[in-house]
Amino acid sequence: MDKKHIGIIGAGVAGLHLGLLLRQHGVDATIITERNPDEIAGMRLPNTVAHHYVTLDRERSLGVCHWPVEEYGYSHHHHYFNTPQPLAFSGGFTSMSRGVDYRVYLPRLMQDFAERGGTLEYRAIAADELPKLAARFDLIVVGTGRGPFGQMFEPVAEHSPFNRPQRALCVGLYTGLRPTDPPGVTLSVSPGHGELIDIPMLSFSGKVDALLLENVPGGDLEELARLRYDDDPKKFRMTVLAKLEKHHPSVYDRIDQARFDLQQPHDLLQGGVVPTVRRTSVDLGDGKIAIAVGDVHSVVDPVIGQGANIASYSAWVLGEEIVKSNQFDALFCERVDRKREERVLGAQRWTNFMLMPPNPEFLGLVGAMSANRALCDEFTENFNYPERQWARLATPARIKSWVAEASARA
Amino acid sequence: MDKKHIGIIGAGVAGLHLGLLLRQHGVDATIITERNPDEIAGMRLPNTVAHHYVTLDRERSLGVCHWPVEEYGYSHHHHYFNTPQPLAFSGGFTSMSRGVDYRVYLPRLMQDFAERGGTLEYRAIAADELPKLAARFDLIVVGTGRGPFGQMFEPVAEHSPFNRPQRALCVGLYTGLRPTDPPGVTLSVSPGHGELIDIPMLSFSGKVDALLLENVPGGDLEELARLRYDDDPKKFRMTVLAKLEKHHPSVYDRIDQARFDLQQPHDLLQGGVVPTVRRTSVDLGDGKIAIAVGDVHSVVDPVIGQGANIASYSAWVLGEEIVKSNQFDALFCERVDRKREERVLGAQRWTNFMLMPPNPEFLGLVGAMSANRALCDEFTENFNYPERQWARLATPARIKSWVAEASARA
Predict the structure, then answer these.
(1) pLDDT (tens digit, 9 = 90+) per residue, B341-371?
(2) Does the residue A107 lie in any domain?
(3) Mean pLDDT, each 10-residue run in order, chain B (410 residues)
(4) For B113-153, what is each residue's pLDDT tens digit?
(5) Least enclosed by CB within 10 Å: which of A325, B90, B157, B288?
(6) Does the distance separating the beta carbons of B341 and A395 come in below 8 Å?
(7) Given an 8 Å threshold on Cβ–Cβ distance, is A398 in contact with B327?
């Protein structure tokens, strides 16, 4: 082909990192998305995402790492287990992570993309324009489940063990929390009731905290996923505070109750995710193909913060292959899939593992980490490399072997 | 585990390269095989194998490249198409290939393996000793279809399009052929009737020629796969000569009829191969697993000489992972498969493509190669990298794109 032109459906992190990578290599790219930057900035909280350093390294290589980690980043994971004898311990990253509200992040990268010659089309896609769209591009990349493309990719049963959400989510951006020292994400577990992931996050008002409450269906915290803020903000706040005090006390202790509130009334997201892996390519006929990235390909529960990082990774692998290839067919997709599969599946399996009641060996690992900083550092570092984490956790024998190895080193 | 011990069933090229690699890394390895070196040396011709330089590089790294390419190797592929206007052209390798009779090759490597601390057990395996064998080793590698292990791996329908051989083979080691200049393999095609692969080969009597006649079922050459040498050696010779003269004249022209004969009466192999890809691992229970290498995993028709090279490659990938791992489970096998899959499938698909009637684009490629040495060199070089060759040949669009690219460079 004379000059490649790639059509990208969706302006999430996958679509934007891909588009920016393609522009960096002089490949024509058009992103079609429903919301313009102003609409994104004004929308309800879409998610609460932390970028691990592997993702920040991609931003650096694209020249779009606009929020320096020295100011907005964090270096640690603080673990808290709300057991009769509470366990509290921390692990460090070798390089900092960072959380930025995607209503701030995505518009800025859309601007970068446009400034670098990328084309943005703000509109919905009608089902009957698929053939016309396919004809415009050499390859269509689908980075959103919305619209007619999102429904084309079939779930892969082998990698999709659940048919309903495993956690009832209540996610909000809150003011009024004292930062941890050192700066870090808190991973608090209330056995039988769920997890709280507290992520320091940059948003419109400056530094806030994303409180991601992952509530076990049937547990004491599940009601938070249905409690309406708009009906009675004070009741909502009081209920959240009471639940935090009981189930996630290390986070509760950092709250200044006078300032504790959602940053904005619509900075709240409630619901649930059905973890699903889908087939990654669809034949559009006439020699054209659509390939999936991000959540359309593999959607995970947010409990260990892998979704956006995997979406960026997966888009990156795809982008590198697009740059190298001039044939976008089944063999191309097979190659892309083979390259990204280990990490994508690693993230999916590790996440699903964390949603299940822990096996005794994992409880042993938690105990060992509480007494072995190097082991906890490795566990923390592996948030960047989910395939390595999964290679450690996939079977009871693997976990035992990891603990034994770490003990021998200590 | 304290010290790994790997059990290898079968002493083919995969089993031996794997065993030698493991010993190089201090890993305990036992090869169980039915024939001892003397029995192998005395057996009927088992195959006619050329090692491409990627395989020779593995031998060099193991210190078992005992037959220097300067003396026994070859540098070229000589193509001949027996069309009304015959086409003859050659392509060169960047590094030499070499053919050694496996009845010479395997016994020497068995000796290397034993000298380096590997254990060889010469015996058949009874079906009822599988649990006992599994208990002896941390992992069982199956490198032979013989015996009870060989039947455990199920064919993968998606990658196994045939249910019968696509060529009727008549393979022999012959004396009486003048070498090509420069030394090379001849790939002669008689459209509609089949191929002849003439490989310079080192055997017991010195340099001989492997004539691998790949005969299309129903064509004029098919009878060679059934013609018995022992019944009437002279008639066999005369029939082969007549067929070569008619269908593969560039090889026929190099024959000294007075000396033309099989090196030994049993240096002849007739039959056929059903190209098949099989599942690569089997759960043996009690936390033990068996993993396949070589023909048990993926068996190809010998028409483009990929089988042994892929077997060695596949064993090498497995060996590197064995050295790195201490967990031999489903995730381990998945990782090995992912690493070796592109090349293994590339060899299988490319081979199967060569057995089918050529598409017009491939005929165009042949014509282009006859006029473009650089293009033919690339085609030749890719015998080392079947995944690259397949990426060039997988679709008519890919072939056209390759030819266009090569023409633009020329």
Answers:
(1) 999 999 999 999 999 999 999 999 999 999 9
(2) yes
(3) 89 98 98 98 98 98 98 98 97 98 98 98 91 95 87 94 97 98 98 98 98 98 97 98 98 98 98 96 94 96 97 98 97 98 98 97 98 98 98 98 96
(4) 999 999 999 999 988 888 899 999 999 999 998 888 878 99
(5) B157
(6) no
(7) yes
Cα–Cα nearest to A98, from A72, A79, A130: A72
Widest CA span of chain B, in angstroms? 67
CATH number for position A348? 3.50.50.60
Please state, in angstroms and rounded to a whole number, the distance separating the CA atoms of residues B195 and B78: 13
Same domain, A128 and A43: yes
Note whether B146 and B38 are same-domain residues.
yes
Residue identified by tokens 């199920």 is B154
Q: Which two tokens stand for residue A45?
A: 């909280």
Task: Specify the CATH number for the domain of residue B191.
Answer: 3.30.9.40
A128 and A104 in a common domain: yes
Answer whether the bond into residue A37 is a cis peptide, omega within 30°: no
CB B55 within 8 A of CB B73: no
**pTM of the prediction?**
0.95
The angle that helices B360-371 and B373-381 make with each other, rounded to 10 degrees, is: 120
A318, two tokens = 């795809």
Select the residue of B331, B342, B397 nearest A394 (Cβ to Cβ).
B331
The Cα A142–Cα A152 span in angstroms is: 10
Residues B140 and B23 placed together within one structural domain of the fold: yes
Q: Could you report the predicted ipTM of this complex, rounded to two decimals?
A: 0.94
Contacts of A341 in chain B (CB under 8 A): 338
Closest to B303 (Cα-Cα) out of B278, B277, B273, B276:
B273
Domain that holds residue A405: 359-409
A81 within domain boundaries: no
Q: Looking at beta carbons, which residues of chain B come within 8 Å of A397?
A: 287, 327, 329
